[in-house]
Amino acid sequence: MSTIGSRRSATTPHRLNVLELLGSLISLESVTPEDAGCMPEIIVPILEALGFTVTWLNNGAVTNLYAERGEGPGGLLIVGHTDVVPVGEGWSHSPFAATIVEGRIYGRGATDMKGPLAAALKALYTVVHGHGDSLGRIGIILTSTEENPSHDGTSYVVKQLGSRLASYECALVTESSSAFEVGDRIKVGARGVDEVEITVTGVDGHVGYVRPDMAAIPSAARAIVALRHLDFSGYDAESPVKTELHATYVHGGSCNALNVVPTTCRFGVDVRYSPGITWQRVRELVEETARSAISSEHCSIQFQWRGKPGTGDPWLSGYGPALDVVDEVIEQVTGRKPKHSTEGGTGDGRFLPKDIGVIFELGSCTDADNMHKPNEFVGVQELLTLVRIYRMLFERLLVDSRSEG
Ligand SMILES: [Zn+2]
């Protein structure tokens, strides 16, 4: 067992060791929305040494930056975050010390996403040193508030930069996207998310005196069935991902009172929606459908929406040639092409301008089930494979395409 990384070791000018860099980032307690020095102390000195011009776009307590280097058409935008989720209980390693045990580096943020971010910086370092001025345009957006969904981070940066980002050919979000092995899966979109708790209030009393159409539980049941049959196909026609709605819990009455009709029945509904429909229309349809299913003068219905409008929006990449390059590079390094997926949560890809033809997430593995949990880790080999994939990808996108064009 050993511990790696200190603030100084990562930025030794003549070399850049990805493990030390990751160790240094993990040692800073950047619990969202804190950056804790990750950008100014560690990342920016590296970027400046590589010839990037760094623009700070801080917003309240949130640290944001945009860095750019090189010029020309096409180009690659890299999007990442330095914040991590709170530590929580149950760690057997120090969450802020980057401990290596049996080929794994443990620490908060090891996989989400200080590991992939360190890999991308290491790959950039190698590519810039190898190709220098012949490289195309590279941009980097970093924020310290991705884990705490808000409009102060990447969304804010994108607004500040306006049309400057629209001309990028593709954007890489260094979010954990792989399943069991690096590169077995990339993410090319995500459905939008909204959630609501619905409360049906009816007539309560002794079961002998309350008619079923007056009661909360059967009315809520009718609403759940009606919502389950809500037809979104008209909205999803153009989209490869489909809108789905799930009832997530039901609560009403008491197990100790089998002969009492309760006043209320509450249930939860989660909607994952395609880019073909807006969150406003999702909410209208859910409310109209549930209301008309109840259709009893004795029952009332209330909706408490939990989603933050705009923060869970869907996004979907276009299919430009850059995506073929991603597939080819991954196949070259790992021996197989990645699966293109839109599963899982929604990352900062959703905030990027739609003019960027190709937007994808490519990072470490999620299916070891350690993200956001105690003993979060990234495998040493996993990290080194990621460096190779990123390096070849940057070369293909930033060197080869220029010499071909
Ligand atoms: Zn993340």
Task: Describe this structure as you would to a colleague.
The protein contains nine helices and 20 strands. The chain is α+β, with helices and mostly antiparallel strands and 405 residues long. It has two domains: 2-190 and 314-404, Aminopeptidase; 192-305, Alpha-Beta Plaits (2-Layer Sandwich). The strands form six sheets. The chain has a six-stranded mixed beta sheet, with helices on one face. The chain has a four-stranded antiparallel beta sheet with strand order 1-5-6-20. A four-stranded antiparallel beta sheet has the order 13-15-11-16. α3 crosses α9 (380-404) and α5 (216-228) packs across α7 (279-294). 47% of the residues are buried. The model has no long low-confidence stretch (mean pLDDT 91). The structure holds zinc ion. Zinc ion is lined by residues 81, 112-113, 146, 175.
Topology:
Blueprint lengths: L1 E2 L14 H10 L10 H12 L3 E4 L7 E6 L6 E6 L17 E3 L2 E3 L3 H22 L6 E6 L10 H8 L8 E4 L11 E3 L1 E2 L1 E10 L3 E2 L9 H13 L4 H4 L7 E9 L7 E2 L2 E10 L5 H16 L5 E6 L9 E2 L4 H14 L4 E3 L16 E4 L15 E3 H25 L1
Parallel strand pairs: 4-7, 4-8, 8-19, 9-18
Antiparallel strand pairs: 1-5, 2-3, 3-7, 5-6, 6-20, 10-17, 11-15, 11-16, 12-14, 13-15
